[in-house]
Every structure is written in C-alpha cells, then in structure tokens.
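Moderator note: this is an archived Q&A kept for reference. The question asked for a predicted structure of one protein chain; the sequence and the answer are reproduced below.
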Amino acid sequence: MQEDSPVQNENTPDAAQTEQPQRAGRRNRLIVLGAAALVALGLGGAAVAATGTDRPAPAAVSFDAQSRAEDASRADRSARESSAPVVPAASPTPSPSAASASPTPTKTATAKAKPKPTKTTKPAPAWVDPMPGAAVTSCYGPRWGTLHAGIDLALPSGTPIRAAAAGTVTQAGDASDGYGNSVFIDHGNGYLTHYAHQSRIAVTVGQKVKAGQVIGYEGATGDATGPHLHFEVHQGMWNQIDPAPFMRARGVDLGC
C-alpha cells in the first residue's frame, strides 16, 4: 500500500520565501525612521546599524556635533566680552610718604656756593641840615648895626635839632651873651658848630655824636623874639664864618 505523500500545490508559496521579504521590509522602515530622527535633532553623521533582529540598533551620538556646539558657545561668549566697554585701569598715585622717601640729592663738596648778594647801602652824608624843612628868617651879615654871625632857622617850638656833622660836644648849657641854651660841637678838623636858643638840651659835654643825631630841641631862650635855631660855624673858637657857603660846599643848602 503506498503511503500518502503530501501534495504540494504549485500555487502555494513557500513559507520561508514569504517570511524573508517581510523581514527585509521591516528593516528598511526602521532604518528610514532612525535617520529621520537624527536629522530632526541636528545630529548629522549618525550611523544606523542594521541588525538581523526586529529591533533597531541604538544610534551613536556624533562627537563632531558636540564639538561644534562648544565652539559656537565659545565664539558667542567671546563676542559678548569684546563688545563690553574697556575701562582703563587708574594709574597708581604715589602716596606722600612714598614721595618723601625718595632720596634727596645732597650738594657735593666740590659744588661752588652761590655768592650771596651784597646789600649796597648809600653811605651816610658827612654833613646834614641841622633842622630840615625850616624857614630861613635871617642870614649871616650885618643886622641892626651889628654882625649877625649865623643863620636863623624857624619851625614850631620843640622841633628836634640835629648835629650837622660827627664830633665831640665841648659845651652844653647857657652860653651867655644872649645865646641862651647852647651846644658846641668840635668836628676835629679845626671847625666847630654852635646851636643856640634851645628849649632843652639832649647831650652832655664830652659826648661823641654822629651826623644827624638829635642834640636838643628848638626854643626861644636868651635874646630871641620867637622860637628858632641860631646856627653858627666857627673856624676856631669864636671866629664865626658865614655858614651858607661852608655848608653848601659840603652838600647842604641852608637857603641863604
């Protein structure tokens, strides 16, 4: 008896042949979906590994994309920093203590010292006006039938009388003969000066005086009609000469 053998229908497809195209179609769809996901995330260059199973292989993250993102971040930060205004740093101000600590240059011994300017003072005149600014009321010469042996100089009573030149006081007091309080000064050159009618005497006999020094004060003692100074020049004691030319020769004009 013959065994019944399975009858294969020519129109029936082989099961193995049918399953293979279906499996390949599923793989193609998974590959396409994975690539689309990588493109959407901006991570280009991803590789999709095809496996023999139904699950798609996990996609690998591209390190190139990560590097580009970091570079872009650094570039953006650099642009922001460069646009910020640059404030110049303030220069340090030296403190007073630092300035004082700087060494002070010392003068060398060889340096020439600057000569000190010498004060030039005008030498004092040897002869001066015995009563500056006074009015002349009488000159040397004949008056009222006698010799008026001096020059009369008038200012208010009490005006200081000054020595006409340096010398030594030989008389100081009442000189009689109507002169009243008088002072005589010997100038050591053969000449004396006489100052009469003083209200008060300011020197003593033997005193050394300088030209212009106050020796007394104007008055009207003796034979005087009013306060004035009777000034005489003697060439030797009681040898009166005209004071006007004598004093003019020494730079003093008494007005006569």
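Archived answer notes: The radius of gyration is 68 Å.
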